[in-house]
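Entry:
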Amino acid sequence: MKKIAVRNLRLCTKDCICLYVCPTGATDTEDSIIDPDKCIGCKACVEACPSKAISLVPLTYPDPQKKDIEVLVMNQKLSSFKANDEKIARDLADVTDDDSLYRLFKAIERSSRLMNEDIMRESGYMLPQSIGVRKFLEDLVAKAPEDFPHDAARRLLEKGLDNN
């Protein structure tokens, strides 16, 4: 199974060692993208990265395992609760003047978002190659609130997320 390098931008410290060790020039700090067409999966950048921001991932993933309808319904309910928790924590953080409470509410907001993402990924909606994520994004673009990043979702859809 062919693997390619990907960079986690949240971890990247821009030390740029990957530029010097990549034998094909696939790494690029200008746009922080590792070119999948140039990457040969040699792992040199992974081993050289001091912040552990680069890892190898399969070029294609297997189709997500089908879930029973009961599991999907429960995951949808959990996801709704977590989205609501995230909004409440964000709203509370916005109105508090206490720095400790602000940081606590922001941590709860982030935690709820991460748990919700895990729930959605488990349901098969967050895998980039799945048809489920394409439908999910299309629905969000069509029905999402104004503050939703519509342009980013449209760009993802234009790139053709599913490998099927």
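Residues 3-58 form a domain with the Alpha-Beta Plaits fold (CATH 3.30.70.20).
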